[in-house]
Amino acid sequence: MEKYITHPKCVAVGECGLDYFRLPDDIQEKENNILLQKEIFVSQIKLALKYNKPLIIHIRDASLPSKEILESFDLKSIGGVLHCFNADSQLLSLANNGFYFGIGGVVTFKNGKKLVNIIDKIPLDRLLIETDAPYLTPEPHRGTRNEPAYTTLVAQKLSQLLNLPLKEIEDLTTNNASKLFAI
After folding, report:
1. Residue 2 — pLDDT band, cuts 50, 70, 90?
2. Quick one: what percent of the chain has pLDDT higher than 70?
3. pLDDT mean across residues, the chain
4. Which domain holds residue 96?
5. Domain count within the chain
6. 5, 114, 167, 180: which sits with the fewest CB atoms below 10 Å from its CB?
7. Which CATH number is 139's domain given?
8. CA dist 11 to 50, 51, 59, 98, 142, Å?
9. What is the pLDDT of residue 94?
């Protein structure tokens, strides 16, 4: 494991986190699954801290427990990104713990209003653009395979929503990514 995490091309630990979207129906199985996810998540956080690597966090239907775990550690030195940020306002305080917010195709969706309505609450120095290829393809390509080239559509939408020039969105999100991943 150490040879991989110390390799120069390894810039982060992840994708890790909590996903409660499809938990088992059986109560005992569900509780065991949640405990196991939390245990693994904590071990991945410790690994990131040990090797001074940022975290790439996946959160689905588990905002509060994820936030509680993340806030139980001092992660300012490594930070991370909330991958495909789910627009849960209670997670915005994680910016104070070194986290960035990854914005992808959802911001272009007609049903992405929750994200659209919170986008201006994200500090600009914590904003990232990302793809979740092959998923979450931005409009007008929704329903097809996502690809990194479509991040331009996300940048254009952010430019509109934040009333900033496209070049400024491109520059600040590129600079943010460079800072976070030390590249």
Report:
1. confident
2. 99
3. 95
4. 2-181
5. 1
6. 167
7. 3.20.20.140
8. 13, 10, 20, 16, 30
9. 96
